[in-house]
Amino acid sequence: DEFTRRNLQQLQERTLALIKPDGIPYMGKIIEAICCSGLIIKQLRMCKLSRGQAKDFYKAHMDKPFFEELANHMSSGPCVAMELVAEDAIAKWRLLLGPTSTEVARMKAPSSIRANFGTDSTRNAVHGADSYDSARREAHFFFADRMFAPCAKFFNVTLGIIK
Ligand code: IDP
Q1: pLDDT per position in the chain (163 positions), as tens?
Q2: ipTM for the complex?
Q3: Most ligand 1 atoms within 8 A of CB, residue of 103, 122, 133, 137 to mutate
Q4: Which parts of the sequence bind ATP (predicted)?
Q5: Which residue range is the domain that position 79 belongs to?
Q6: Ligand 1 centroid to 127 CA: how many Å?
């Protein structure tokens, strides 16, 4: 019935997580924090974004004063993209990563990933989709070729450059 369907859907909510170039030195600790929090890594892929791809990923911020700096940062080194699955995965991952600004994160969420591994407002170690629609768009951005990969049966770990 509808109730069961909704619950099953919620149990399997998916989100997109990204370790940004400045977070790469801490990727082991970040992945450990993800695994300890009850989020399941369904897919994981390391890639280096071009400047164009970084701008496309963050196109919602095109008009912001920090857009160029953000695109430069996101294309300055490799990223690790992960598709995470859990009940309430979107909210769970946003809570674990913490507020956007590292300074605010250190004050308000001292145990968050950004508080621990961020540097400033741009270099804040990780990204998380903030809604169902952005989760879907961003998962497609990094895993377009694997959107219908079976869950739980096998886990896809790919090392490569997205085309
Ligand atoms: P979020 O990553 O916490 O969702 P958004 O407002 O969506 O925050 O911003 C996207 C990214 O743009 C941030 O993660 C950060 O890297 C960068 N950014 C956001 N606000 C600022 C700012 O005021 N100065 C510099 N960079 C910023």
Answers
A1: 766 665 566 568 999 999 999 999 999 999 999 999 999 999 999 999 999 999 999 999 999 999 999 999 999 999 999 999 999 999 999 999 999 999 999 999 999 999 999 999 999 999 999 999 999 999 999 999 877 655 444 444 444 444 3
A2: 0.98
A3: 122
A4: 20, 66, 94, 100, 114, 124
A5: 2-141
A6: 9
Q: Cα(142) to centroid of ligand 1, in Å?
A: 19
Output the residue whose Cα is nearest ligand 1's atom 22.
121
* CA 13 to ligand 1 centroid distance, Å: 24
pTM greater than 0.95 (yes/no)? no
C-alpha pair distances (Å), 108 with each of 51, 69, 102, 140: 32, 25, 10, 32
CA distances from 93 to 85, 90, 157 (A): 10, 5, 20
Task: Report the catalytic residues.
Answer: 127
The answer to whether the CB of 126 falls within 8 A of the CB of 20 is yes
- 160, part of any domain: no
Give the domain CATH number at 107: 3.30.70.141
In a domain, 152, yes or no: no
